[in-house]
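USER: Please consider what follows.
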Amino acid sequence: MPSSSDSFNPTHDQWAAIDLGSNSFHLLIAKPAGASFVVVERLKEKVQLLGGFRAGELHPQAQERGLACLARFAQRLKSIPPERTRAMGTYALRQAANAQRFTQAAEAILGVPIRVITGQQEAGLIYQAVDHHVNDPQKQKWVIDIGGGSTEFAMGVGAQVNQRHSIDVGCVAFKDKFFAETYLHAGNYLQAKAEAKTALQQGGLVQPNGFENQCWYGTSGTIASIAAVLSANGWSNGEITTTAIQTLEEGIVNDHWVLQAGLPGLAPDRADIFAGGLAILSACFEVLGINRLQDVDVSLLQGIICEAVLPEQDIDLQEDSVVRLSRKFAVDQAQAQGVEETALLLFDAAGVWQLDESYRKLISWAARLHEVGTHISPQHYHRHGGYMIRHTAMPGFSELQKSMLALLIKGHRRRMPGLAFQSFPREISQPLIRLVALLRIAVILRRSHDPQEVLMPRLRISGGDLEILHLDCGADWLRQHPLSARELEVEKQQLATAGLHLKYR
């Protein structure tokens, strides 16, 4: 009989990361999953440790807020072994002359040491979190994180970080300096932006070269809140652009918006620091020549977990995520492989569409996971599958990639999801329509669920807008597969609603 020490403990493999930031304190609890990890829980409190910072010292009330927050975090940490807990302090604790007094009190509460990291170390950990989440080893990645007291920048390719910068401009510091009054003065906003631009230029940050192979990513609550406001007002479609920022600035500078009165998409607890954060991000766009930036839902916390638990060897996180989900939800591997083979055969035959390798990977993943929703119910399993993919943690996949994958899975049978395509810009929606069409045909051709069946359909695309699909299943194949023949006839009508015309024999 096993001893009590051998009994199952659901938290025995969990890790905790604590970020003692200048604006907010964060706690993240995660557990390893394959070559990555999944987040179990997040806690966040607005502490504003940097608030009231005077003569190089933390204000007593800010310290009280911070220690009270950590006491609440400590209750949740009781089930996590201290050796699996990492706590890090950033700008406010780097700058404060009385930081040691605060960290000693905080360590007594948490029962773990607090590591105060440099701005360059912070930038590197944030980059590691983004690289782990985005997992694009080919493109040069620039990462921006706007904090309460400083803004971190990192650049690299793959897991290799080539540049780290930390500039002393932050949303809490700017709030105290430029936006102490409730009413937002346009002149104050312009002064804040001018100071941010000067700091960036003096910090050695200049417009980088090689734009054709670069991607810009943003993390932190500031960038997330800006992205949320732009999206809620219809000024952006999933990413922050120069035009969208200018539209938002015009409201602040020319229309004299009172942010505390409410702005669609803006959380009330960020109203006081929103203008300062926007001024910093706008300065980054202008000084660094950024045209568009993607908000990534990671932070220093994920970087801490990456450092603690991830293997050192290079691993394809996207492949690992697909394999893990496939096994977790008991997907029929033989059927998934058959649909994948047929879908890729059709994809390669549709070369005239000029879909690049990223779309080939996308249809491959969708084919392998298209039946994942049967884990919930065989009825409407395509809908369940789309929802599961959209809301399941998939390390290595960006939110855009997850949205595209979810749409393919949701749209692989029954009615074509016409309205869903419209949520993507045309340069993405048109390829998605074509991928959905190929996946739907592949699923129909593999309706026998026979892994031994050899199927070599031929596909040819024609038409002025490349919208006519000629499918040749081979002599007598349709007669021998009446279910597929019937479903292809129905499929003609569905594809026609998306502007595609199927002809088959």
